[in-house]
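Incident log, support desk, overnight shift.

02:14 A customer reports that sequence design results differ from what the structure should imply. Their input is reproduced verbatim below. On-call engineer (initials T.W.) acknowledged and began investigating.
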């Protein structure tokens, strides 16, 4: 897993990188960290699996960096804000900026372990490989908004649009992390991350698509996902 640490205080990213290194060594995880002092430097790089962004930075603050990352790489960019301010979470939510987590500064090992464990538990970084003709494409599970059955193939909907793959929806279902995806009826599998709203008959996704809901156990499964995400 590749992690980007962005904070205008070098001692913060240095200590956080040390704690992450200890975490990786104890759990035998393959984790690399890159440190950045400002948002513009970070935005020049390719996508990372996880971003720790300081909420308050001179010039381009964490909110602006997160928005730019989502514009560049899609809405599924995974962001954890670093903050010294108790009101930061409410302010971010009020401004409509999605945050996957918050961590108080200065970070301690227990808080970091809990944060990294939670991201792993919800399968944020899982990848799967799909065949297209004679080539293969690797997708992040978190980039898939929903999967739609189409005759004997499937349409996989992401922020970049929908692409057709020569698989059955059941084959795709087996590849996807079960704690992140739910099959709401025979023809649709949704990613919990992108659920905007739902009622007894339909689920509306964050891209605006409304899908027919048949499985009545969906509300309970979605509430369980949200509980694990926010614990």
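02:41 Re-run completed on a clean worker. Output:
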């Amino acid at each position: 897993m590749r992690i980007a640490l962005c904070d205008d205080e070098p001692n913060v990213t240095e200590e956080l990188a040390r704690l992450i290194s200890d975490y990786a060594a104890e759990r035998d995880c393959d984790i690399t960290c890159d440190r950045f002092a400002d948002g513009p430097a970070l935005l020049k790089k390719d996508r990372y699996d996880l971003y720790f962004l300081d909420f308050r930075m001179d010039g381009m603050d964490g909110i602006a960096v997160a928005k730019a990352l989502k514009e560049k790489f899609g809405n599924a960019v995974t962001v954890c804000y670093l903050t010294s301010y108790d009101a930061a979470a409410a302010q971010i939510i009020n401004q409509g900026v999605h945050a996957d987590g918050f961590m108080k500064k200065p970070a301690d090992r227990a808080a970091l372990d809990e944060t990294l464990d939670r991201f792993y538990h919800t399968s944020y970084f899982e990848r799967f490989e799909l065949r297209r003709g004679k080539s293969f494409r690797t997708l992040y599970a978190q980039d898939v908004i929903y999967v739609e059955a189409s005759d004997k193939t499937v349409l996989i909907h992401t922020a970049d649009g929908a692409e057709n793959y020569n698989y059955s929806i059941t084959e795709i279902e087996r590849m996807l992390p079960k704690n992140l995806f739910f099959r709401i009826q025979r023809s649709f599998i949704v990613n919990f991350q992108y659920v905007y709203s739902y009622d007894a008959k339909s689920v509306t996704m964050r891209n605006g698509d409304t899908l027919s809901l048949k499985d009545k156990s969906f509300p309970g499964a979605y509430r369980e996902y949200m509980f694990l995400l926010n614990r």
